[in-house]
């Protein structure tokens, strides 16, 4: 809070004694009022800090306990969810399972998959269970009801739920009902309204392959958690008409800052959730919590739909095959700890464009690792996405980003409408370092420290303060950003990072936040105002509290320049930022750099960009610069990746409908007919290459397929007469890596030890050499009977790269008993058996006079 003191010596006009006395009294009263306001603001900030640390009675955010709820259901003897197959289209029925003599198990081919039209998801809400569980619903004040599953041996009331206990008791306890916990008619009306709006939002945001006929549920067990909900008999026998997802609703109490929770309880044959349990705490069904509840319900239903690590294993690709990888766990040396990142294609693409992270160091979007068992692993990392709706805490500022919609689309179950995404400002265009570096290395307002008492928030939309908490114990090693090990930011979800938090009345964009001193400081609050550092004060006044502060000033981006206004006078800022002065004011305003407000700002000159670019682009100099996937003068039209590469039709939703013979999100990949994969071939952009792959990914055409289990390698090659595909047969040649006896008509080799060494340079190269030895050892002789060993060109090259070797891979005949000298290697170096291995080889071969052979040592 700035305190402005009138400087009497600076005034020119003279007044009579009475007028001067009145003016002095007015100044004194004015100053006292300002000091009281400043004192009140300090107290308010102290309370805010205390509330954020201990929890406030007035709930301002929702704390998700999704994983904690799901973990309760995973206890022994409980079924987490049931699988109930649904009918989707003709290809899913029994009559289409057999084609060309092969059971396809209902999996559509490429053309069928492209022709499947997804429709807006239909969510059916069932309220039959509201208030109908005597042991779990609060019906009158003083009722003692179950929260979770209290110990069976305990008496009602013990243990008692107490979020303020040490340690807190949130679940598996007995809850003492208050008046706020009773769901009367007024609260039930609010519940129906809020959930109805949620279902409508998802209907616009997601499309799904529609269930054909009625949605059938199994009724195997109660749906959901906290006692669950028993499915109506008709849902099992008849099904639910006009529905793709059924949500069973309850109003049971919760503790702490948890407004609601939701879990999936039944899935279809592809893993998509078809039934879920949503619980909303009655004490939060109030007018004051309406906006927060709306955001909370979207968050919780996202968990049901698929934002759940337990659902990741069911995710499908465009052919409805299980995805081989959804997340990747790595040791991040920069951050100093293990992190889990989502590596799904659409998530990575939208993340790259959001952060401007196009470096190869960015491999995926990080999941939350804090917040305990209720939050960790099932939300986005708050340090990186802050107010995104799928972080571990939700508030009224939460937004749905394209990354969240992308994750649901990458599940293979949904098609996302990205126009339903909100603009996420946190981290926008900050580059790869923002995602991969510790937050104490972040630039600008994304990081603050003890020396800064106040400043501007990261998006310059508000004035803020830098909350730094002193904890009773030391923070984790990776979260120590200060010399004191127990000091850090106020949020464990955000990895204790310190950043400016907006004052409650610090908004620059809200005209209701206007304060009395604004005019004296030249400040104006409104849609095109932003926070900037300033020492400005109107001539005749001085700043009493500090010479340098922050204020809200109008800005505009025009003619490739940033302009700011004070008292109606516009001035051009230096491109790199810097001070500007204004007539009638002492001090100066510090302009931010042009790119901070203009390159990513949605505000142009007087905010005149058509339809604000529909939030699908940046507004620069009055023109929309559309994000990837959008085009048009107002970015309202969806564009397809690479315009479908001329091999498909671009639909209005921005998805490619590929022609026959092509697939992929951009129709760039040619496909082969199904006979290719049936016969062991590999489709490489439309060309069926009949080859097999070993477990390491190296391939040889017309060769063999490796089956590896620990140290055991098997040759499963049957003589391939046609030379067109790989045909499996029973294991024959290699049984154990330690004892390899090559039968007649095959070249005899024996790796003499489990450890394999790269003789080239003397370095140890176990894994790569072992793979190459497996390849070499199983190759068959030429059909003309030459005792010749052939090696894959790709395997040879891979060995050279991995082990620093220098074999000549141009000639694949590396060993031969008839060419270039007996048993000689055509590579750069000859490796011979040690005398021990020669002796052992002779014993196993049954021929004590066998010559020492050149061998790839492992």
Automatic annotation (TrEMBL):
Please tell me where Zn(2+) binds in this chain. 299, 303, 379
Q: What UniProt keywords are attached to this protein's entry? A: Disulfide bond, EGF-like domain, Hydrolase, Membrane, Metal-binding, Metalloprotease, Protease, Transmembrane, Transmembrane helix, Zinc
Q: Which residues form a coiled coil?
A: none
Which SUPFAM superfamilies does this entry report, sorted A to Z?
Metalloproteases ('zincins'), catalytic domain
Give the stretches traversing the membrane: 21-38
Q: Which InterPro entries match?
A: EGF, Peptidase_M8
Q: Which cysteines are joined by disulfide bonds?
A: 640-650, 658-667
Q: What are the residue boundaries of the EGF-like domain, all occurrences included?
A: 636-668
The active-site annotation reads: 300
Cofactor(s) the record lists: Zn(2+)
Record-level Gene Ontology MF annotations? metal ion binding; metalloendopeptidase activity
Domain of life the protein comes from: Eukaryota
Q: What's any one GO cellular component for it?
A: cytoplasm
Provide the GO biological process annotations.
Answer: cell adhesion; proteolysis
Pfam families in alphabetical order: EGF_Teneurin, Peptidase_M8
Q: How is the cofactor bound?
A: Binds 1 zinc ion per subunit.
UniProt lists the family membership as follows: Belongs to the peptidase M8 family.
State what protein this is by name. Answer: EGF-like domain-containing protein
Which organism was this protein described from? Dipteronia sinensis
Taxon lineage: Eukaryota, Viridiplantae, Streptophyta, Embryophyta, Tracheophyta
């Amino acid at each position: 809070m700035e305190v402005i003191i009138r400087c009497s010596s600076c005034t020119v006009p003279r007044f009579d004694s009475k007028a001067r006395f009145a003016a002095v009294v007015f100044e004194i009263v004015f100053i006292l009022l300002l000091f009281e306001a400043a004192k009140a603001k300090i107290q308010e900030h102290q309370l805010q800090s205390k509330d954020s640390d201990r929890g406030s009675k007035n709930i301002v955010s929702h704390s998700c306990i999704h994983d904690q709820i799901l973990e309760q259901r995973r206890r022994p003897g409980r079924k987490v969810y049931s699988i109930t197959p649904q009918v989707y289209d003709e290809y899913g029925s029994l009559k289409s399972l057999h084609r060309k003599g092969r059971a396809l198990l209902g999996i559509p081919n490429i053309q069928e998959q492209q022709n499947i039209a997804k429709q807006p998801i239909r969510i059916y809400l069932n309220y039959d269970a509201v208030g109908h569980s005597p042991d779990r619903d609060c019906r009158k004040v003083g009722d003692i009801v179950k929260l979770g599953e209290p110990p069976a041996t305990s008496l009602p009331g013990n243990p008692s739920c107490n979020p303020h206990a040490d340690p807190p008791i949130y679940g598996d306890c007995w809850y003492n009902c208050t008046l706020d916990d009773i769901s009367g008619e007024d609260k039930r009306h609010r519940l129906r309204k809020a959930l109805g709006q949620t279902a409508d939002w998802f209907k616009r945001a997601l499309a799904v392959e529609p269930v054909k006929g009625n949605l059938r549920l199994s009724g195997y067990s109660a749906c959901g958690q906290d006692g669950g909900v028993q499915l109506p008999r008709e849902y099992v026998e008849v099904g639910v008409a006009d529905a793709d997802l059924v949500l069973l609703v309850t109003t049971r109490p919760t503790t702490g800052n948890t407004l609601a929770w939701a879990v999936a309880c039944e899935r279809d044959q592809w893993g998509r959730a078809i039934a879920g349990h949503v619980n909303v705490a009655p004490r939060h069904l109030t007018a004051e919590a309406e906006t927060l509840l709306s955001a909370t319900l979207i968050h919780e239903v996202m968990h049901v739909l698929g934002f759940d690590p337990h659902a990741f294993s069911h995710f499908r690709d465009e052919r409805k095959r299980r995805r081989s990888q959804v997340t990747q766990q790595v040791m991040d040396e920069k951050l100093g700890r293990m992190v889990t990142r989502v590596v799904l294609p659409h998530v990575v693409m939208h993340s790259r464009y959001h952060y401007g992270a196009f470096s190869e160091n960015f491999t995926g979007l990080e999941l939350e690792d804090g917040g305990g068992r209720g939050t960790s692993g099932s939300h986005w990392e708050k340090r990186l996405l802050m107010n995104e709706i799928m972080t571990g805490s939700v508030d009224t500022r939460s937004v749905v980003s394209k990354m969240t919609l992308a994750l649901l689309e990458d599940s293979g179950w949904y098609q996302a409408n990205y126009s339903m995404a909100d603009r996420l400002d946190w981290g926008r265009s900050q580059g790869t370092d923002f995602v991969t570096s510790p937050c104490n290395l972040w630039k600008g307002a994304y990081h603050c420290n003890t020396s800064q008492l106040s400043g501007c928030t990261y998006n310059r939309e508000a004035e803020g303060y830098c909350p730094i908490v002193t904890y009773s114990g030391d923070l984790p090693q990776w979260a120590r950003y200060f010399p004191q090990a127990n000091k850090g930011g106020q949020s464990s979800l955000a990895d204790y990072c310190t950043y400016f938090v907006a004052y409650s009345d610090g908004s620059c964009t809200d005209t209701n936040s206007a304060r009395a001193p604004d005019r004296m400081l030249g400040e104006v609050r409104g849609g095109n105002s932003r926070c900037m550092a300033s020492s400005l004060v109107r001539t005749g006044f001085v700043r009493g509290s500090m010479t340098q502060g922050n204020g809200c000033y109008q800005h505009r981006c025009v003619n490739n320049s940033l302009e700011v206004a004070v008292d109606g006078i516009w001035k051009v800022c230096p491109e790199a930022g810097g001070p500007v002065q204004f007539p009638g004011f002492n001090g100066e305003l510090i302009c931010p750099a042009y790119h901070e407000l203009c390159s990513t700002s949605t505000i142009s000159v007087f905010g005149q960009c058509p339809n604000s670019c529909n939030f699908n682009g940046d507004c620069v100099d009055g023109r929309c610069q559309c994000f990837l996937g959008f085009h048009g003068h107002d970015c309202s039209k969806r564009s397809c990746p690479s315009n479908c590469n001329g091999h498909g039709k671009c639909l209005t939703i921005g998805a490619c409908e590929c022609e026959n013979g092509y697939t992929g999100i951009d129709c760039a990949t040619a496909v082969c007919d199904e006979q290719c994969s049936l016969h062991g071939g590999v489709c490489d952009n439309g060309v069926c290459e009949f080859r097999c792959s070993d477990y390491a990914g190296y391939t040889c055409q017309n060769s063999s397929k490796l089956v590896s289990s620990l140290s055991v390698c098997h040759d499963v090659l049957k003589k391939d007469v046609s030379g067109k595909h790989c045909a499996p047969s029973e294991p024959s040649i290699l049984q154990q890596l330690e004892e390899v006896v090559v039968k007649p008509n095959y070249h005899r080799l024996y790796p003499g030890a489990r450890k394999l060494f790269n003789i080239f340079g003397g370095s140890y190269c176990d894994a790569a050499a072992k793979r190459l030895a497996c390849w070499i050892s199983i190759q068959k002789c030429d059909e003309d009977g030459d005792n010749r060993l052939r090696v894959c060109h790709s395997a040879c090259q891979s060995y050279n790269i991995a082990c620093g070797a220098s074999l000549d891979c141009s000639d694949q005949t590396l060993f031969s008993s008839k060419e270039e000298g007996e048993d000689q290697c055509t590579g750069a170096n000859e490796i011979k058996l040690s005398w021990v291995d020669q002796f052992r080889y002779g014993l196993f071969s049954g021929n004590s006079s066998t010559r020492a052979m050149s061998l790839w040592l492992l």
